[in-house]
């Protein structure tokens, strides 16, 4: 099974996962056969991506069968969480009292689902489903942050503090004019300075809230700080930045890079990870970066990749302990000839091989 953009969908492809609308309504069941008609229907509903069956992505019991792992959280939970964020942002804009009962409840649901999911590896790179950036981003950052917290063996209390702060980390943007937030062109210096105030706005909204810990509120203030002092708004360094904020800063950058925006296209997960690894020790805590890399699929199953030998291959399996060196099946030789036996290679044991870059599947020829 592999993920494709809807515009790459073709009649007679087999749907690999249930397809739902932004409100959770079932549009197509797993196993349905695509047609011009139902592809058009999905387009009208604004579905950006779908999963299709692909016999190149079979897996075995010895490795994490990434393509068979359930979504990292339930669709219903995701939709509910986005609505909670949307309602909180609306209340702030309307000047209403911030009620944290529902955000806390949905964070608990996310924690429960992540704790029950022993196979988080490989699914975190697929968590972007809905296309409303602001609210989807908040939920995605929350999921990513809690996943790192679980890897750190945080107590449930600490997971809650981290989760609620991550879910509301951008609440200060409610105080920034939409003409700046939604501007498709480059921001002026004055506009960027206004954007850089949103951590302060968020902290002022949540600090001293009777139902929120100061550590959670601090995430709003510090998620754009960097350990070398290069961040904003206060250029905090190292130990001045709370660990929760360091976690959320990584999750925030990763999700922002892998999202399509009006002013930029999304990058591949592996490209986002490369940016984060390159910033390890400067912008991001190295130990937290290591945990993050270990708990996310840089090369999702179904990705077509170019090896350093010039051969192309498709990722079939992901190692839990070292996802940056997956198992692949060769598709073409270095001179572009199809590999008929689809030879499988484990990059953990074939140490002279490595992935140069990810290719679009539709541009890879095979027979």
Automatic annotation (TrEMBL):
PROSITE patterns: HD (PS51831), HD_GYP (PS51832)
Segments forming domain HD: 134-257
Top-level taxon of the source organism: Bacteria
Domain HD-GYP: start-end pairs: 112-308
UniProt xrefs under SUPFAM superfamilies: HD-domain/PDEase-like
SMART domains the record matches: HDc
Pfam families: HD_5
Protein keywords: Hydrolase
Gene Ontology molecular functions: hydrolase activity
Name by which UniProt lists this protein: Metal dependent phosphohydrolase
